[in-house]
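> Could you send the DNA polymerase III subunit delta prediction when you get a chance?

Sure thing. Input:
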Amino acid sequence: MKVSELQKSLKKGDVQPVYLVLGQEDYLIQQVKTAFMALLDDAERAMNFASYDMTVDPLGAALDDGTSVPFFGDRRLVFVTQPFFLTSETPKLPITHDIAGLEAYLAHPLPTTVFVLFAKVAKLDGRKKISKQLQKQATVIDVQKLNGRDVDQQLMHLIQTKGYDIDAASRELLVQRSDGDFSAIVANLQKLFLAADDKKITKTMVADLVSPTLENNIFDLVDYVLHKNTQAAIMLYRDLLLNKEEPIKINSILLNQFRLLLQVKILAQKGMTQGSLTEILKIHPYRIKLALQSVRQFSMSDLTAAFLGLQENDYKMKSGQADKVLLFELFMLKFANIRS
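Output:
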């Protein structure tokens, strides 16, 4: 079930006893929470709502609440967050969770309780009995990370709903500086809404109000490297150092980015589409989109040379064979002189 379907069903009074909210999109998760909270008025929330974090609270406490009749109201609402016992995670915590109790509750849930589990992961551990039972008996709400097309659609819908306007270039910069993450885009939009007195969001506003992340800067750095723009690459690298970024961290992210570019280049040459690449590489769709745009411009030899040079830097940095700060600049000077 999509979030929009949940909102409609709850408003119509079609409320199920157990829900599983599965996925990692913070914006959608917050929408789900708001929809469920609307089931209770202010007075009822004080006595008939409780939230339990499974990293600090025992599952038994949530189940006790779930099996209690509501006080002066029609229903009780119980949230269970961070249910790591549904996943492959095994954190060491001084808590024993009553999994058998949850299995019994799922078989016979209290009709006056709305029991909601929020699993902030891409998928549950299908090997576990409780995970299989929950997905079978609960109503599953999809809050997975939005892909590139869905991000664009949701972004335009949100902007238009609020009565604002944004051109394509400004929208592209907003998505880029938010690393294609819809929840981050929504957070950045709030600043832009406040700044746009005439309801028009411009590229200048986005550039001024939405700060580039380290990933954004690395994307620019990759572009400078591939275009062999030595001066721009070294200037940006030094800016990152001034911002207290570690040379090893910068090199590691660069190395990972060139690894991705090589993978995308090879698979794209074999006819893989953007959707297929996203599924195979398990990478955010927006990163795949940017990678595809980059690899079309550059040869396999340049991508390979850059990757091998950064891999050599990684080894030298970690083994202490050279000055960590200077290694990137030396790499850039050497790479710029390689003929494609």
